[in-house]
TrEMBL record, chain A:
Transmembrane segments: none annotated. Gene3D superfamilies: Carboxypeptidase-like, regulatory domain. This is Outer membrane beta-barrel protein. Keywords: Signal. Residues 1-20 form the signal peptide. It comes from Fibrella aquatilis. It holds the Pfam family OMP_b-brl_3. The lineage of its organism: Bacteria, Pseudomonadati, Bacteroidota, Cytophagia, Cytophagales.
From TrEMBL, chain B:
Residues 1-19 form the signal peptide. It comes from the Bacteria. InterPro entries: GLPGLI. Keywords: Signal. The lineage of its organism: Bacteria, Pseudomonadati, Bacteroidota, Cytophagia, Cytophagales. This is GLPGLI family protein.
Length: 950, 249
């Protein structure tokens, strides 16, 4: 029935066009599609393409009778293509000139050889090109390890079999000939090419049947064909190298000439990357920029999921105030450091990345010599009155550090993965310090100092640190179920010697012997801190929207510190028992937690809790040889709640918030029962009784972004209430004015912050205005001479930025930032202080004809503290002119001037819990530099700012 | 001319409908290769592009799940669900409004797309791309597919589609359609976006072919939409920001 209808349907069309005209403008094409045995093919795809560019113009399908008809064809030449599942696609040229209907009669499609279809098309999910008898493999789809031969590649091709001797069979037949780019490769033996050529050099492999050599020679086609393989060579396989080098030098005011050189080179192909980097300068550039770091570390710049401490983020203990230098490569960004520094650094990095295995290793050496000349003034409050300390110091710090890193990530199978990470550092450092201090009582009748000190210290140290972790992650067939386990080992060893040479004068001392005190000591400190960690985590999906997550963390830390202090005033080198110490501390942390996570349509909520137990067992004595040691035993258990929320709303609105309890473990320095008298007028002591500080924190934030109008807003608030806050209790000797600081736990402190920022265009792409502000307020309770002082600080910060980008040749950026800090002291309201730190800047960039660029930045920094009568106004003006050289723009020539007005100095000031402070340190001021850059990838000159890695 | 043959083809397909599979749902994974995408940002230097490619080369491509409901005469393309989720399912986010509806017999288009801070509705007549058919074949989900290529003049993208010769419907993902078979894989601009069918199931779906009503939608025609996109790309490039954070690549 359907058959008849269809025929009728076709006939209607056919007769319609047949009756039309003798010179038709529209043509029809008809034929019947069968297989080689004559069976009608139903549903074969019939397509008509233009000869010129293969554009599809008409298409249809064959009916049950195998017949098809295409109508409405324009005059011209076409390619007819007929495809059918399991058949070789057929192409045929057809022209439409005279006859209104072209009838091609019966078209027979050849079946695709079973081997080819089943093996090649089915198993190779990768594309194959079939043209007539030729099957073409695209080698990009068949991955082989680097260095593999063509033979290895052929083994990967479906439908191709390579036996042990290297003989090749394709689609069931032996391959007699192997051509390279259509030509015979050296010898008749097909194996010559396949064994000797590199797989990487091949872009395509084609297999087809060719006439025998005999048939070609005689010209008599006997019908026998032999399988032939052609290897097409790649133009160039993906690899590359890039690098750049910058060097410059110039004069400086009141200093020797300044110079800098920096370079890096990077060579990579698909799986490997090798890079080197180096820098040397006396222009305060201590570390790498982010861009340099990314070029150096490549695919290993950032590794997520290397955190071996599972559980609530940030909720697990963290160590505050570590003095150790980072184990990883320091990044200074564009920041110019304090003081005056000479820096050198060099490194090599190698990465190997495949889908299954990722390896990265690096070595980085850096050294710095930093000179600081600082003048500072500090007011300290005591119930008995305020002290004013003025000091001047001259310091030289030298350090050199070797860092190595190694990381391997191995995918065991699609569900299991293991990661090993090592970061290690070996450093040597030495320091020289010369300083003078005078202490006065404010409001006393005399303005002469009551105490003064001259210090001349030197120190050397060697330290080694290493951090190793193994993380194993396992996923299950059930989506969302996962298990992870990790172990870690950390070691920090430090061997330091400090020679103290201090003269102290106490003008108010009654006893003559007390008026002058000389301290000469050698303090040798050897410390070893080892940490062993283990963590487990299990996640079970309870439904599509609810997950249950449980974790356990274990951490054991062993500290062993041996400190010997000798009095070097005489040749006898007597041991100073009050300062010498030997102690061992064992800290154990255990945390067990569980929580639920709900997720649905962009609303994500997590609620959970954990129990954390902290045990401290320590013992200490004046010397390790002493049998009697004092002991410390403490156990501290806390319940840690955790709530987190974020919500993704329509039109780019986003809200987030949470409640958590943060646990801050005291730093080892704060816990050590050691006395630091390197500044004899300010003694600090550790406190082994310290407990972890707990902060109950809530936060809420909101973001909005309108990409249509380029407007965005973000803002939020947070509040924290602190139990057992670690604060530094101060005591003062009323006669000598020597202060002592000891860390203690005090509850009742809090902090609050609010931030808000909006950015919108005044005129799209031409002018943008940013407005932002934040308020930080806090309360800190600090015992001073046994009396609890409450300090309330409130800091306001307002900033605004105007970006003008009116033309391709001119940009201007104006900034204003106003910072006001207020501090109120309960025990000394007269000392309530206000600090002001403002920064105004203007930055203009111009592109001149002739490819010359000019940029100029003017910064005006203002620091004020009326209590001290302190005021610093620093106008800093930098300018540069540069030009790209050459057609390829690979080179840049630049003339820069830094601090043209020669006013630069590092200023810092604050009004803290027990003191108001300010200092000025000499730093790099006016200098000029002529520099040249060569960049293999081309230098980019942009007058626009704000790039993500500039 | 293609339109007429399409009509004819639809007639045939309808006649063959009960014999063949021409109605159902195709699911796709849509992957974005960001390192490649960044090479299209005119304001980045070659050095920055290389840096990005090297830094992030081990990162998994961003993947989204999409859905195409098709019959021989119409199709509706949208996100597979209202929200996207992380691979482990533990985290979800809201998916923007996105519905591309096509009626091949009536030559109608209704597109609902949330972008640039608004929801736009494009109602216009159907204009199909000019396809070129190549010689490559490939099997996807058990269907023998042929290759076809075209060019998107608005976003300046090279498009490569693999269509199943045994699913005779002209539908396809995103805004690409008009081939002699269902598009099972789409490669936008040399691999920046790869849409791969993960599952095709055949069942009656005519009832699901409805564009949801959207409130406060802004109406534009095809031309207006193209102008909007072109203008946004140009503006963002000038601002040195990636336009494709906020519009579909």
């Amino acid at each position: 029935m359907k058959h008849r209808l269809l025929q009728l349907f076709f006939w209607c069309f056919l007769s319609g066009s047949a009756l039309a005209q003798t010179a038709p403008s529209r043509f029809a094409l008809q034929a019947t599609v069968t297989d080689t045995l004559g069976a009608k093919l139903n549903g074969a795809t019939v397509m008509l393409q233009t000869v010129t560019d293969s554009t599809l113009t008409n298409y249809g399908r064959s009916a049950e009778t195998g017949a098809f008809v295409l109508k409405g064809i324009k005059r011209g030449s076409y390619i007819l293509k007929i495809t059918y599942v399991g058949m070789m696609p057929l192409t045929k040229n057809v022209s439409f000139e005279q006859e209104a209907t072209v009838d091609l009669g019966t078209i027979k499609l050849k079946p695709i050889a079973k081997e080819l279809y089943e093996v090649v098309v089915r198993t190779a999910r990768a594309p194959l090109t079939i043209r007539g008898d030729t099957v073409e493999y695209d080698t990009r789809a068949f991955k082989v390890p680097p260095g593999s031969s063509v033979e290895d590649l052929l083994r990967k091709l479906p439908g191709v079999i390579v036996d042990r001797e290297g003989n090749i069979r394709a689609q069931g037949q032996e391959v007699k000939k192997v051509l390279v780019d259509g030509k015979q490769f050296f010898s008749d033996d097909p194996k010559t090419a396949t064994k000797n050529l590199q797989a990487e050099a091949i872009s395509k492999v084609q297999v087809f049947s060719d006439k025998t050599e005999k048939a070609k020679l005689t010209g008599v086609d006997d019908g026998t064909k032999e399988k032939t393989m052609n290897l097409e060579l790649k133009e160039e396989f993906k690899k590359g190298g890039f690098g750049k080098i910058t060097g410059g030098a110039g004069p400086a005011s009141n200093l020797s000439a300044r110079a800098e050189v920096r370079g890096n080179y990077n060579k990579f192909n698909k799986t490997q990357q090798f890079s080197v980097i180096g820098l040397a300068n006396n222009t305060n550039q201590t570390g790498l920029s982010w861009a340099d770091y990314q070029d150096f570390r490549g695919s290993n710049s950032f590794n997520w999921n290397d955190n071996a401490d599972f559980g609530f983020g940030g909720g697990f203990m963290y160590f505050g105030g570590g003095d150790e230098e980072s184990l990883t490569i320091p990044i200074s960004g564009g920041d110019r450091g304090n003081g005056l520094s000479d820096n050198q650094a060099a490194g090599v990095n190698y990465n190997f990345d495949t889908k299954k295995t990722k390896i990265s290793s690096s070595y980085y050496f850096s050294q710095t010599k930093l000179r600081s000349e600082t003048q500072s003034e500090e007011n300290n409050f005591f119930p008995t009155g305020t002290l004013n300390t003025r000091s001047a110091s001259n310091q030289i710090n030298r350090n050199s550090t070797h860092r190595i890193s190694f990381r391997i990530e191995k995918e065991l199978d699609s569900l299991n993965k293991i990661v090993f990470v090592n970061n290690s550092r070996f450093a040597t450092a030495n320091a020289l310090l010369f300083s003078n201090r005078d202490i006065r009582r404010i409001l006393s009748a005399t303005s002469t100092p009551t105490t003064s000190n001259t210090t001349n210290n030197n120190s050397t140290s060697q330290s080694f640190g290493t951090n190793n972790s193994i993380i194993y992650r396992m996923n299950f067939k059930k989506k969302g179920r996962s298990f992870a386990a990790s172990i870690g080992y950390q070691l920090n060893a430090n061997d330091a010697t400090l020679n103290i040479n201090a003269e102290n004068r106490f003008y108010e001392a009654l006893d003559l012997n007390d008026q002058f005190r000389l301290i000469r000591q050698r303090q040798a400190t050897n410390s070893n801190v080892a940490q062993y960690k283990a963590s487990l985590q299990y996640v079970e999906p309870l439904s599509k929207k609810v997950f249950w997550e449980s974790f356990y963390n274990f951490n054991l830390r062993n500290d062993a510190v041996d400190r010997d202090v000798l009095d070097t005033r005489t040749d006898q080198l007597l041991r100073v028992d009050t300062l010498s110490r030997y102690y061992t501390n064992n800290y154990t942390y255990n945390r067990l937690g569980t929580g639920f996570r709900y997720t649905n349509k962009g609303l994500n909520i997590g609620v959970g809790g954990a129990v954390q137990r902290f045990t401290l067992n320590g013992q200490y004595a004046f010397d390790q040889t002493l049998p009697v040691r004092q002991t410390i035993d403490r156990v501290f258990t806390t319940f840690i709640p955790n709530v987190s929320l974020n919500f993704d709303m329509k039109n780019n609105k986003f809200m987030y918030g949470g409640y958590n309890l943060r646990v801050q473990i005291p730093s080892s320095r704060d816990l050590q029962p050691l006395v630091d008298n390197s500044n004899p007028l300010f003694i600090s002591r550790g406190n082994p009784d310290l407990l972890p500080a707990l902060t109950h924190g809530v936060n809420l934030g909101f973001q909005y972004f309108n990409p249509g109008s380029f407007t965005n807003y973000y803002g939020g608030v947070s509040y924290g209430s602190i139990t057992n806050q670690i604060v530094y209790a101060q005591t003062i000797d009323p006669r000598t004015l020597v202060r002592t600081s000891v860390p203690v736990n005090v509850s009742g402190g809090n902090n609050f912050s609010f931030y808000s920022n909006v950015s919108f265009p005044l005129k799209k792409t031409k002018a943008t205005l940013d407005l932002g502000g934040n308020i930080n307020a806090g309360r800190t309770l600090t015992p001073i001479n046994g009396e609890l002082n409450q300090t309330n600080t409130t800091n306001y910060n307002i900033n605004t930025r105007l970006s003008l980008t009116p033309a391709d040749w001119f940009t201007f950026y104006g900034n204003a930032e106003i910072g006001i800090g207020n501090a109120k002291y309960s025990i000394s309201t007269a000392e309530d202080a206000q600090t002001i730190s403002n920064n105004y800047s203007a930055d203009a960039n111009v592109k001149l004809p002739g490819g010359i660029f000019v940029s100029s930045t003017f910064n005006y920094l203002l620091y004020r503290n009326q209590r001290f009568g302190f005021e610093r106004n620093l106008p800093i003006w930098n300018a540069a002119v540069y030009r790209l050289v050459g057609k390829a723009k690979k080179m840049e020539v630049r003339l820069s001037a830094f601090d043209l007005l020669n006013r630069n100095v590092n200023v810092s000031q604050y009004a803290g819990p027990t003191a108001v402070f300010n200092s000025s340190t000499r730093t790099l001021a006016r200098y000029f530099m002529f520099s040249m850059t060569y960049n293999m990838r081309g230098v980019k000159a942009s007058i626009r700012k704000g790039g993500w890695d500039d | 001319m293609l339109r007429y043959t399409l009509l004819f083809f639809i007639c045939c397909a309808t006649l063959l409908a009960h014999a063949q599979n021409t109605e159902g749902v195709a699911l796709y994974s849509r992957k974005t290769d960001y390192a490649k995408l960044l090479t299209k940002l005119t304001y980045l230097s070659q050095e920055q592009k290389d840096r990005y490619a090297n830094t992030w080369k081990n990162d998994e491509d961003w993947s989204e799940k999409m859905k195409l409901v098709f019959t021989p005469t119409a199709s509706l393309y949208s996100f597979a669900s209202e929200s996207g989720e992380s691979p482990d399912g533990k985290y979800t986010w809201r998916n923007k409004d996105l519905f591309f509806y096509r009626e091949y017999d009536k030559e109608q288009v209704v597109d609902v797309e949330e972008m640039l801070g608004k929801t736009y509705v494009v109602e216009d007549t159907l204009r199909l791309p000019k396809w070129k058919i190549g010689n490559q074949v490939r099997e996807i989900l058990g269907h023998m597919c042929l290759v076809a290529t075209t060019f998107d003049p608005v976003k300046q993208h090279n498009i490569k589609a693999w269509f199943a010769q045994d699913i005779p419907v002209p539908a396809g993902p995103e805004k690409y359609a008009g081939l002699p078979g269902l598009i099972l894989e789409l490669d936008v601009d040399e691999g920046i976006i790869i849409l791969e069918a993960t599952n095709v199931s055949f069942k009656p779906v005519a009832a699901d072919l409805k564009v949801p009503k959207t409130k406060k939608a802004k109406k534009v025609d095809e031309k207006g939409y193209a102008a909007l996109i072109k203008n946004h790309i140009a503006e963002q490039m000038k601002e040195q920001q990636n336009p494709y954070w906020t519009i579909r690549y």
